[in-house]
């Protein structure tokens, strides 16, 4: 196993096969439950509470971090190029009756030389990808191209507009209050979306902030088949076993394991399957194997087994004598007169000499085209 892990790390597949769960807050709902405990293998079941929301004060601090610490002068932080500027955006039309608000920042931060050279700028980021952060789902792992962003959203304030409201370095500490005063309508929409999504079940046009994730950690390889069996009756999205990695927000403790549905029905099925697995491996199989006394032989079953199968020939009970060719048909017994196949001589109709003509015509040679013209 160590050789497999070392090879995966060397080829880069070790990190690529593990999904990183990122959120604003990740905490344990309860202490991990031990479901399998053996001499060298301990398997635990952990339940995590995930909060993906991003408040307006948190997004204001993200804006502050984008502004360089020693930035001075009137030079723009992000020049006006083909790539959209980082800042706040509002949807141009309502989606499901709601006005969407996002914070977008450039994925690729270009240097001054790259900004001056348009060829380097296009090569480094041809689509102008933007990383989006929403109040209810946090930072989206999928980027959006500049063209799509400008088509769906209109900019409310850029990062350079936010920089102008900062009078000095001391104002960076109360940047949330200054931005709330300067952009009151935007901050109100952001905070309303953040507060309304404070639930586990989503609404129309609004995804929930909170969610629960189950994770099987510890020794997992020896019970992968048991995990698949416990999820056999679940939907397809829950049957796929994914390796995930999380980090607790409060303690920084890391967990790596298999993602599992976080509901009581799934937990009960997992506990039952793990108990059966533990009994099978410990030798206490219970009533898994039962020796039964052989039952008496049934004559009907013996007769059915010894009888040859019915075929078309045996069904109609044909014999070899009936299938012989050229055998004469026996006449039925009794005073029954057989029917003649041909009429007798006295019943033959008279042809009045016509039969002689027919005989001559049949004996004559067949006509050809030359004989037809010879008569003429």
Can you walk through the features of this model?
It is a single chain. The chain has 16 helices and twelve strands. A hairpin with a 3-residue loop joins strand 7 (130-134) and strand 8. The chain has helices at residues 2-11, 13-16, 56-66, 112-116, 118-124, 146-152, 159-164, 175-182, 184-196, 224-230, 236-239, 264-282, 299-306, 312-315, 354-363, 369-374, and strands at residues 19-20, 25-28, 33-37, 42-51, 87-91, 101-106, 130-134, 138-139, 153-158, 210-218, 243-247, 254-260. The model has no long low-confidence stretch (mean pLDDT 78). The strands form two sheets. Strands 1, 2, 3, 4, 10, 11 and 12 form a seven-stranded mixed sheet that branches. Strands 8-7-6-5-9 form a five-stranded antiparallel sheet, with helices on both faces. It starts with a helix and ends with a helix. The chain is 34% helix and 18% strand. Helix 3 packs across helix 8 (175-182) and helix 10 crosses helix 12. With 376 residues, it is of the alpha+beta class.
């Amino acid at each position: 196993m160590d050789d497999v892990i070392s090879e995966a790390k060397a080829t880069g597949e070790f990190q690529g096969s593990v999904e990183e769960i990122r959120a604003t807050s990740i905490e344990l709902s309860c202490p991990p439950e031990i479901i399998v405990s053996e001499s060298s293998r301990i398997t635990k079941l952990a339940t995590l509470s995930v909060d993906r929301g991003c408040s307006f004060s948190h997004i204001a601090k993200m804006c502050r971090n984008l502004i360089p610490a020693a930035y001075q002068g009137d030079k723009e932080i992000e020049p006006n190029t083909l790539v959209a500027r980082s800042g706040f955006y509002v949807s141009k039309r309502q989606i499901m009756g709601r006005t969407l608000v996002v914070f977008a920042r450039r994925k690729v931060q270009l240097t001054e030389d790259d900004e001056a050279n348009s060829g380097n700028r296009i090569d480094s980021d041809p689509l102008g990808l933007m990383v989006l952060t929403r109040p209810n789902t946090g930072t989206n792992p999928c980027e959006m191209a500049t063209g799509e962003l400008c088509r769906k959203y209109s900019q409310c304030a850029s990062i350079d507009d936010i920089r102008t409201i900062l009078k000095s370095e001391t104002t960076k500490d109360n940047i949330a209050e200054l931005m709330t005063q300067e952009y009151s309508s935007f901050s109100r929409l952001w905070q309303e979306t953040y507060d309304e999504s404070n639930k586990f079940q989503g609404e129309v046009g609004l995804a929930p902030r909170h969610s629960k994730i189950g994770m099987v950690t510890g020794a997992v390889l020896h019970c992968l088949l048991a995990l698949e069996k416990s999820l056999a009756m679940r939907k397809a999205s829950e049957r796929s076993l994914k390796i995930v990695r999380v980090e607790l927000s409060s303690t920084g403790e890391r967990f790596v394991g298999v993602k599992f549905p976080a509901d009581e029905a799934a937990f009960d099925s997992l506990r039952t399957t793990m108990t059966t697995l533990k009994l099978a491996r410990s030798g206490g199989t219970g009533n898994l194997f039962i020796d039964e006394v052989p039952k008496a032989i049934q004559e009907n079953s013996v007769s059915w087994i010894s009888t040859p199968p019915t075929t078309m020939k045996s069904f109609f009970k044909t014999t070899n004598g009936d299938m012989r060719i050229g055998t004469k048909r026996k006449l039925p017994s009794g005073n029954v007169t057989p029917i003649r196949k041909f009429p007798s001589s006295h019943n033959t109709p008279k042809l009045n000499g016509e039969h002689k003509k027919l005989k001559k015509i049949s004996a004559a040679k067949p006509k050809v085209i030359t004989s037809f013209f010879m008569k003429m």
